[in-house]
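The data are set out underneath:

___
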Amino acid sequence: MGKLKIAIIGSGSTYTPELIEGLIKRKAELPLGELVLMDIDTRKLNIVGGLCGRMIAAAGIDCKITLTEDLNTSLINADFVLCQIRVGKLPARVLDEKIPLKYNLIGQETCGIGGFFKALRTIPVMLGIAEKMRQLCPEAWLINFSNPSGIISQAILTNTKVKMMGLCNVPFNMFKSVKETLELKTADIEYVGLNHLSWITSIKSGGRDYLKTALDMGLNSETMKNIPSSGFSKEFIQTIGAIPSSYMEYYYYRDKKLKLLMEAEQTRGEKCEAIEEELLSIYSNSELNTKPELLSTRGGANYSEVAVSLVDAIYNDKQEKHVVNVLNNGALDFMGDNDSIEINAVIGKDGAKPVRITGFSNSHIIDYMRMVKSYERNTVIAAINGDEDAAMRALLMNPLVGDYHLAKACFDELKEAHKTYLPQFFNTL
């Protein structure tokens, strides 16, 4: 096989060196011929791109590196397109976090009404990228890490023909921490849910299921560095009958989370703005050719391993399991075939084959997933069509919103605040 062209869209992100580190580690498996770093932020593109170029050179990889602000240039004849965009950048995230607090609603970049507005801004842009891929690299794989990953997957997989998978580092970190806590070298872990709404429901190793052991221990999976976490009690985990991801604290401990957010001196987005500037300053050092340790404070632990190992599995037809966001297609009999879910899938050159789970009987998880999926479907309709009725239907189904009067008032203020990035809601023609 020939050498690969990989395009990273949103490469001005300070996470990008994570991806480059992953490519370097797998340089034997992934023969890189061209790396295109694309971003619309000239300053960040040049600073981050400069570090990435030095990392590639220091690793002895002989490939063409292109920095560009032009999407078409990045996509032409690409084999893999890795997307990590943030429409409106961190200032938009801060608005998503701050404005909801005025209405006693949780402000968070993927959950609740903040995540809803991130989806409204991002889905049209991602659909535009998918359409450009259809024209310029129709055989390429789109691997998306842009949040909210699950809703974006729902939009792309049901409205385009692009070959696509959504990705998140939460499942990988959950699996890793559970195996370490139970002292299991290998384990077949059953994972069920939607992106940032997920549970571990089985842990099998050596012919034994360790889930009951884990529940009796009150085992928590590793929390993300970007989420202040208090963990789940043993009693709570036994009540659920599964190990929730740390993001579930927003749903299960809603009032406590809201109180913490309202008392915080800064939002997470504001903290990230400071971390980002510090990272960009470090990246500007022309002597630096490795990923700095500070990057781990952005919540990107094992990000490169998750992303690049997925590319490796597709390119080299490895037929190995990864947790991805893909269409259900019968894997969970309680969800629709066209529902994007986050689940184990066997990955190879033909894409993802979700691992079917039969006889699943945890009614709490089933009902929760169905409710939040209804929210996601309506969010996609609202994002594509600028449909305010669909937007309100979505928010009323979201467990972190629900109240009509609060939802409508907050929706109106956030819509106006993000007007530049929401033309679908303001086009009166």
